[in-house]
């Protein structure tokens, strides 16, 4: 969730916006930063959006880097978190422009699911990728204080399928958000579930970049206490990171948690890029309190899309003071290997 109060004038509903005469979209200019809740224009991925039918849209995005956090130039398979950030920006822009959501209304992420199957469109090293999203966006809740929306997107590059994503979120009246945001947090773990650590017992050591798949320390989000059980880490981000902390927030952003989940999976020995991800967000993370990130091997999943073999999975949880903040299942093809 983020709050940006810049007031571009949006039309009150998608019915007020005329249908596009075609699905051709432009990749020549980024959309205004405020329209996707960004401060820096360099962090805007979207270039265009047109309504093509009732609840249907075509959205353009230009990926000038091949990784969510940086540009490696290695031409590897697409980064699923770069797709996640593209879809996140899409839901914000469509909510404002086509669903009449005023600027300044908080967005609360509920769930994110995405998949990049084998054979997904490769990225050309050193060249921007023009990504097209075919989007369905519908309202699921509509009350005076709360609007729920759901988005499904199929992504492609130059006509070659890239992957798919689904995301659910709520937009809250600002006064109602303050009530929801500051109400007493209640533990969300099931009876009999293992107790999760609430604070490190000793000094933290940030993980080495190679442990989480990066060449440099600036992108590392996890640290460990020498007394922690295997698979237990602590969130330790750099608050000056230009991608993860582009704008102020009163809580730890969902994309920070997703990147921490990805790094936890890598630290467990998985590939840097999962082929699938399903995440649920259940509570706000306070930025000034410790967040524990735990990862365990999950059950083998279903047969993967586009190739032989099955998926291996990792189960990841973020918790704070015993309250579960978010959970995710990351899926990896059993034969995928990536060097740090």
Automatic annotation (TrEMBL):
InterPro entries to which the protein is assigned, alphabetical: AfsA-like, AfsA_hotdog_dom
GO molecular function: transferase activity
All residue ranges annotated as the A-factor biosynthesis hotdog domain in the record: 36-170, 216-330
Feature: compositional bias, Low complexity: 188-209
Disordered: annotated span: 186-209
Coiled coil start-end: none
Origin: domain of life: Bacteria
Pfam family membership, one: AfsA
NCBIfam families according to UniProt: ScbA_BarX_GamBu (NF041195)
Protein's name in the database: Lactone biosynthesis protein
Provenance organism: Kitasatospora aureofaciens
